[in-house]
Specification:
Layout (H helix, E strand, L loop, with lengths): L9 H23 L7 H14 L7 E5 L2 H12 L11 H20 L1 H11 L4 H17 L4 H11 L12 H11 L8 H16 L3 E3 L3 E5 L4 E2 L15 E2 L5 E2 L1 E2 L2 E2 L4 H6 L3 H6 L3 H11 L1 H7 L4 E5 L2 E6 L7 E7 L11 E5 L7 H8 L14
Parallel strand pairs: 1-3
Antiparallel strand pairs: 2-3, 4-5, 5-6, 7-8, 9-10, 10-11, 11-12
Length: 373
């Protein structure tokens, strides 16, 4: 029965969700990248409860894996008849079906505009990191295959997975909605919202997992997760995401790199950068080395010089040229020296003055500084 202090209109429900959003974002931000060792007993209890909420029998066994790669291989080999079967996948019953029906119910209650707004408030900030982590781990699993046949089986196995803690990209909205309207007054019926509530409890306890009729394949959390300031999977000194069994992802600003890439970065030279054939990897090298330093160390010559500064350009194979303008600060430093600045500019510019003007959003003709600082 709905209590009198629960909001009833779509506007009131949306307001209640918005009020709960900050605390939920803080909570799920921690869950999303948690490396805390899993409490296996608590995780198994949460999974058993979820099965019960969906009216399903608790699986006969829980199979623990140190990483999603180990789990995906188990599922892939079982599907190929090379290991004991786990029964049919229950992802539709425990995730997709309840999500689709609950989403339709919340959308009908709030309306499209309010739905979009509460989604942004409860899930929007979490989605980029969650999505990047899921995509990076999935790509690394596929890349770990010994041949094309195993790669296909691994990719198929991934379609049966739940992403546990990385379902932070969508679970908070339904948690907020259930709290806003009360657990007993969900318009889709108690069952779907109760299942999503149970799925959220599993996500709080687990990393990736695979729900089957006869077994639940459960993964330990990663031992390390590193992100850059934009939430991209990133580490220039080792694994960006690592697991207890040695499975690891090496990424620079989200781009896959070799395991020994950190050692390469430490010994970069202009020649090594020039010889790198992968354009994305070469951009990473240049970012680490410094575009201005590369121009100087590569022996490049300025292509034009005028009162605004010096224009430099270096051509790279299968990539956009590096074009930078070198300018000297007209104001002396306390020690009497004049600081030099390097500014990256588009390669179509032909003069230093045009390049400096571009940094101010002006054309060369419009750029007529009265005072230089």
């Amino acid at each position: 029965m709905q209590t009198s202090d629960m909001p009833t209109t779509g506007e009131a429900v949306a307001a209640a969700i918005a009020a709960a959003a900050p605390a939920l974002l803080e909570k799920w931000s921690r869950i999303n990248v948690s490396t805390k060792p899993v409490d296996r007993a608590a995780a198994e209890a949460a999974v058993a409860e979820l099965y019960g909420l969906a009216g399903l029998e608790v699986p006969r066994r829980f199979v623990w894996c140190a990483s999603p790669l180990e789990a995906a291989r188990l599922v892939a080999h079982a599907s190929a008849g090379e290991a004991d079967g786990f029964g049919e996948s229950l992802r539709q019953e425990l995730r997709n079906g309840p999500w689709q029906r609950a989403r339709a119910a919340v959308l009908a209650k709030l309306g499209p505009a309010a739905w979009t707004q509460v989604w942004r408030e409860t899930c929007g900030p979490l989605m980029p990191t969650s999505t990047r982590l899921v995509e990076a781990v999935s790509a690394a699993i596929g890349g770990a295959a010994v041949d094309e046949a195993e790669q296909n089986r691994l990719i198929l196995a991934l379609t049966f997975a739940d992403h546990g803690q990385q379902d932070a990209s969508w679970l908070p909205l339904f948690e907020a909605y259930r709290e806003a309207v009360g657990a007993e007054s969900s318009p889709a019926g108690d069952a779907d919202f109760a299942i999503l509530h149970g799925l959220a409890r599993v996500a709080e306890q687990l990393h990736w997992w695979w729900p089957f009729a006869d077994a639940a394949i459960l993964c330990e959390r990663p031992t390390e997760v590193h992100l850059d300031e934009q939430g991209r999977v990133h580490n220039g000194e080792g694994a960006a995401v690592g697991y207890g069994d040695g499975f690891a992802l090496y990424r620079w600003r989200g781009v896959a790199i070799a395991e020994d890439f950190a050692e390469t970065l430490a010994t970069l030279t202009p020649t090594v950068i020039q010889d790198e054939r992968n354009a994305e990897v070469r951009r990473i090298m240049l970012e680490h080395y410094g575009h201005d330093r590369y121009i100087v160390d590569s022996g490049a010559k300025p292509v034009q010089e005028d009162e605004a500064g010096r224009l430099w350009q270096v051509f790279l194979e299968r990539d956009e040229p590096i074009c930078m303008v070198e300018v000297v600060n007209a104001t002396a430093e306390p020690d009497g020296t004049f600081r030099t600045y390097w500014l990256r500019v588009p390669p179509h510019l032909r003069t230093a003055k045009a390049a400096v003007a571009w940094t101010f959003g002006l054309t060369e003709q419009e750029y007529e500084p009265q005072i230089q600082t």
